[in-house]
Amino acid sequence: MKNSLGIDIPDEVLAAGDEVYQGAFAKHHMIYQKAAPKTQAVIDPNQSKVLPDLKDAIRACGLKDGMTVSFHHHLRDGDYVVSMVMAAIAELGIKDITICATSLGSAHDSLVPLIEQGVITGISSSGLRGKIGKAISEGKLKNVARIRCHGGRMAAIASGRVHIDVAFIGAPTCDDYGNASGQGGISDCGVLSYGQIDAKYADHVVIVTDTMVPFPNLPASISCSDVDYIVKVDKIGDSDKIASHTLRMTENPRDLLLAENAAIIMKYAPYFKDGFSFQTGGGGPSLAVTRFLRPMLEEKGIKAGFTVGGCTRPMLELLQDGYLGAIMDAQDFDLASVESVHKTPGHYEISTSEYADPFNKGSYVNRLDYVFLGALEVDTDYNVNVITGADGVVRGAPGGHVDTAAGAKCTVVMAPLVRKGRLPSVRDKVLTVTTPGETVDVVVTEMGYAVNPKRQDLLEALADCPLHRYTIEELRDEAVALAGKQDEIEFTDQVVALVEYRDGTIIDVVRKVK
Amino acid sequence: MSNKNRLRRTLMFLNAQRANLVRDGYIYRPDSVIFDLEDAVALSEKDSARVALYHVLQYVDYHGVERLVRINGTDTPFWQEDIRAIVAGGCDGIRIPKCETAADVEKVDEAVTKAEQEFGQPAGSTLLFAGIESPLGVHNALELATSSERMTGISIGAGDFKGSMHAHYREDGAELYGARYALVMAARIAGVQCYDTVYTCVKDFEGLKKETQLIYDMGFDGKSVIYPRQVPVIHSVFTPTAKEIEKAEAIVTQLGSQASEGIGVFVIGGDMVDVAMLEGAKRTLMLAKAAGVYKGAVQL
Amino acid sequence: MKLNHAAVSGTEDSGDVFVEIAPGTGTLEVDLTSKVIRQYGRSIRQAVGETLDRLHVTDAHVVVKDKGAVDHTIRARVATAVFRAADQKDNLPWGDL
Fold first, then answer.
1. CATH code at position A285
2. Can you give the pTM of this predicted structure?
3. Does the interface predicted TM-score (ipTM) exceed 0.90?
């Protein structure tokens, strides 16, 4: 069945209840019954929640073949929780498990053998990086994988399309009754925004910690009243890889040029007023945009109002120096951010649902003026691919890309015309649509920028912008002139992953590479 | 065919051997690039850099950025083949390093003329630039500036020069003042352009701005660049302020209308204005236009 | 051009290509590796072939280790390797390239 972008979604991969993409705001004002967990009353005060090890917790939760477990990725590349829990599940002989993760990557290579053995037969996640992405692209996972952005995962859980049997929530500190926090331990991650949602909707909630602290561990991201069991392990993660010590601020002149161009767009677009809000990514040119912000703010005599989503040290510095009003934090990228949340005035933790869920009564992304996003590829309809590399293999993650693009008034996608080596970023059609073009407003490259023709208002407002303006087709031609015309990758018919839009509709599919 | 009087506020050096950089060096939008076959390239790679550069010149659209080449010195075994390659490739101009006397320029001129003929390039289309790096070169600045029909600009290379002078770096630039002054003077007498030396402290943008302001005020037409992020800093110094643009526009329009009424001297904003200021005013508007900040109607 | 001995050119930096050429055993053999072989393999072989053709090289073994070099870079590196293998330093046939 063709979705509204003209992409054919094979009927045989659509599960019961799946719909195809019909537009970014197609489900606005949809009425639905919110899902709720099957839970238990714990009245007797003499019950201990602390169990000796993970296997005990898994047994106590009654995990059986075919059930769904969930994990967050606040511990990022340093995470041990997913591998430890899945190893324990495998040792107990349980199989056919579906993992509902927020993201999976290089810390989770140990899952590949479990996929091959059938312990894991289903995965939904934003990121599918490294060996997991490769395994899925090779068709090793029994059931078709589902790629969900952060807001989309929240909506799927809240609407009941995904039911979590057991949520395993890694927490840097926890008391013996279940109040869990992202600070105060040996593997701090700052916030537990993803975990907040899983704790409310899963039938069983297990906190996995390496640092038990006295009761009550407040302020807590996860409340003890939502927690079934607590297991203490030696380490929940490798603290060197959880948050970067300091995010590397690029010194590459090309990245800086991109960042400067994006900052110039910000200045000339009509939203650059006192109290404006923005969001940048955690790496490369996107992060470097904050570097150009301060002199622009000083020149105009204005301050930024708030940021939403991932928190970085440059944002923190803007907050501390009085250039930024507040940080709404749903993920900490560096140590400075991990230490600052709840402590620096104006630095708040919000749940991932508050951040980006399209099915609640208003998430923070809807209040964004600007968002600066990267891209693997963008096409002449402004659709963006952040999932499949040029070789057709799954290697990226939609993350908050899709949600912020939908919510922000000015979505700026930044990409060099030709990626490292010889791969054009601007093409006729992207390999995999992640973020639909109707939510993308400006594409910025080293040479200049292009504005989505749907935004005539922005085209007019940017009339005085000193950067060179191109059509998206001209940018594509520039990319081809540089790199040469490429031959297309060939895929088989086998679908290995479905790409869900944030409202759960299917926007594209990933097939196995020939 | 390159215009001798085109704007050359920035001349950005690019190592011809670095494939990744030369394929799209134009993205930084300097007025000119100088592909370097000389100091940036190791002896063992001179041949490779030459071939790579030929291909860049022949096959890459540099989006209006002027393509100059710094060849190896005339005291090396490389310069003649350098000239054949880059003229065949269609470069816009050649910077000759270590120029000291007119003879240094003349032999290059001869080789360029031969190469233009050999490879069917329009006669005279390849411009020449004299790189001055020694006390003798500075002393002979005027001789060098008038040594060829092709001569378009002269530049000072401070590194070697300071060493030969036994001079030391000063923040106020006093050790280079004489050389800079001599070059601007010679350039103005000869009617060619002049360009200042590279600023080697690549992360010090404040220092770069100060030095650029100094040489701009002295009358230099541009400055050599060794790091792409230096380009916007230098351009901003060469960009007239709104006030300067307003005055320049008034001068140009009113000189025109006053002259038709037979009036040669008058006052604008409390300052005396006469026809001697016309060229300067036009230059201001030209700089403003190049920087994209002049939207007025005056035709230049 | 006649190749006198083996020669190399280029680098393995991103955006460049490393070329090794040696006198052949009767034919033209090209050994190509590249991260973008699916997208540009055909085009790379064409660039290599055309360059050798223009320099009248018909008998050689060429190893090409591509790191995402664009077309003119591939041609340049192949030509450089040929000139080095043929020991020709001056009076190069620029008009033919």
1. 3.40.1080.10
2. 0.93
3. yes
